[in-house]
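Q: What would this chain look like folded?
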Amino acid sequence: MNNERKMSLWMLTWPVFLEMFLQFLLGTADTLMVSHISDDAVAVIGISSQLFNAVNILFMAIASGAGILIAQRLGARRPQEARLISIMGAKVSIGIGLALSIVLNLGAGPVAKLLQIPGPLQPLAETYISIVGSGMVFMAAMGAFGTAIRNTGDTRTPMYIALGMNVIHVLFNYVAIFGAFGIPALGLTGVAWSTTISRLLGAAAMLAVYRRSFSPGIQWRDWRLYDRTMFRETLRISWPLGVNMSAWCFTQLVIFAFVAMLGSKELSARTYMNTMESFCFMIGFSIALAGQIRIAHLFGSGEKEKAYRTAYQVMWIGLGLVFVNAFLLYAFGDKAISLFTKDGDIVALGVSLLAVNLLLQPVKMVNMAIGNALTAVGDTRFPMITGTISMWTVAVGCSYYLGIQLGWGLLGIYTAMIADEFLRGVLVGIRWRSRRFMRTDAVPAAAPGSTMTTA
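A: My prediction, written as structure tokens:
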């Protein structure tokens, strides 16, 4: 396969989308299986997942920053630098993951109390957090290796590995929950071990592929390599990504709390909407991530004008697909929501939100497409500053004012979310049209005296 075809939007997008979609389906199956243990088990996994998603940001920010530089260096035909950046990014990500594994394993009790988990669920939560938390290092390794592999243009192999890992996880869950092959039913403890073991196997598979993704192949002795200049460049891109990702994560938690203040029906409607909206999000995010990889390669190779036009190509393709999907959800929304609940009030709330969703998803697509384009050229501070301010003031502030204070309910909260996405989309759009990245070097020259050393 020639490099141009390998780096086309279609070849980059479909494996990312399929990976996310299969994980979504298997995650749903996972939840349904755990529900056979008890509602308490589902609640513990749901609350704990919020914690794991939040700490995941700490090492994924480094992995994402390294991934951008890998794509740029490969585009500039400097594969040795791309190789070194991938090694340093993986070392830091895995180091953070290992530290988190120790903290969560030894401090599961205090962490469970910090999450305000109800007293009766504390023992279950401590066990689950201790076991799954101890495997965060495997999650960090998967993220670092998978991101590096994708930014070489190979988005299919991580898809296959993720699929295999999730299938193994569901099979292990079946054994743990129902008992099979002479193994007794282990309940939530077995599910926790199933999660950790499947992540260990996934990390091992990713490592095997990662070591062959660069030329020459990565050897164990290469883990000692270090370059101060390139490491600082990785951190320069990574920390704004981490702040932006954290802001999104925590503002979503706050908004979810506002929805809970409205009542159980509103909370249920919002939860079901999250599930239904996820398909739109997966389409948009897959195209935006593929665009980010392609733009980073083009930028690194010096094809800046082509990189500039590609961002709009990604945006328009994404808008078309996302809008069609949002319209289909609206057209058949009452039937789709009825699969989850027979409560007429919740169905009515969900259908009304699907109408508003026709506005939310397109503005979100614009924000993702252009925001990821800025990230691809290394401009991560501007989206961080504008995004953090907008998410906390517009998304959170207006959600409370419109939804709670003025009594608009879910409609008010969705209106605030649309306004936030629209504002951020406009701001990153203006930034991209300014073509500031055209005036910077795609890949900086190595600093005088800069050498690779062993750590």
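The first strand starts at residue 225 and ends at 226.
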